[in-house]
């Protein structure tokens, strides 16, 4: 390009970085593009490091952004929160989520779904439920994914009463049970064939599944 008098712009560099991250890994991309300072560029590197489980490198790049007066956007925070949970640093992940509000960023549905899903997987159902209810107060409403994620959390920890309540609520809002939710319900019924609550849960789940077929 330079030989023809052409200069690569940020879009070109970002496309090259995406390709290099996939082909050679984020370390290779960082080596070639570490002097580039743009929010999208840094986001690509952070995402690449997170996908490879390199949280420390992701956080280093995150702090470099702040040092260079670049404001990390919501995509960067969502990526880091998810990765931090994945490597088992629960308190650090929750702190990152709290920082969104301090930085004047409004969590979106994706942010809330990440928090709810990861907290449920850790068995922190009370915390997940508080965030679930908090969503509506911030102007974002639980979507189909949100309901299925939190219902699955309660099912995995054998709280069929709460799962039934949430499935009823989900049906009322026109959402449907996904394959994983149905599988967990069926497994519960198989293990507790005489449990009336389990039977009710199965009935509710079938209604939730039927919503998507109408």
UniProtKB/TrEMBL annotation:
It comes from the Eukaryota. Keywords: Repeat. It holds the Pfam family PPR. PROSITE patterns: PPR (PS51375). The keyword Magnesium does not apply. The keyword Repeat applies. PPR repeats lie at residues 38-72, 73-107, 108-142, 143-177. NCBIfam families: PPR. PANTHER family: PENTATRICOPEPTIDE REPEAT-CONTAINING PROTEIN 3, MITOCHONDRIAL. Belongs to the PPR family. P subfamily. This is Pentatricopeptide repeat-containing protein. The lineage of its organism: Eukaryota, Viridiplantae, Streptophyta, Embryophyta, Tracheophyta.
């Amino acid at each position: 390009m330079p030989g023809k008098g052409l200069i690569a712009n940020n879009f070109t560099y970002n496309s090259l970085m995406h390709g290099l991250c996939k082909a050679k890994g984020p370390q290779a991309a960082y080596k070639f593009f570490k002097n580039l300072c743009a929010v999208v560029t840094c986001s690509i590197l952070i995402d690449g490091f997170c996908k490879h489980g390199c949280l420390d490198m992701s956080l280093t790049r995150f702090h470099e952004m702040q040092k260079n007066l670049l404001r990390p956007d919501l995509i960067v925070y969502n990526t880091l929160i998810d990765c931090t949970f994945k490597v088992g640093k629960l308190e650090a992940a929750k702190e990152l989520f709290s920082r969104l509000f301090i930085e004047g960023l409004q969590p979106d549905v994706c942010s809330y779904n990440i928090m709810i899903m990861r907290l449920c997987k850790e068995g922190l159902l009370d915390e997940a439920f508080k965030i679930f209810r908090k969503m509506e107060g911030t102007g974002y409403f639980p979507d189909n994914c949100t309901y299925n994620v939190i219902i699955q959390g309660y099912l995995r920890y054998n709280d069929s009463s709460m799962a039934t309540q949430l499935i009823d609520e989900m049906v009322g809002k026109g959402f449907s049970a996904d394959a994983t939710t149905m599988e967990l319900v069926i497994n519960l019924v198989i293990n507790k064939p005489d449990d009336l609550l389990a039977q009710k849960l199965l009935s509710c789940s079938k209604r939730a599944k039927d919503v998507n077929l109408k």
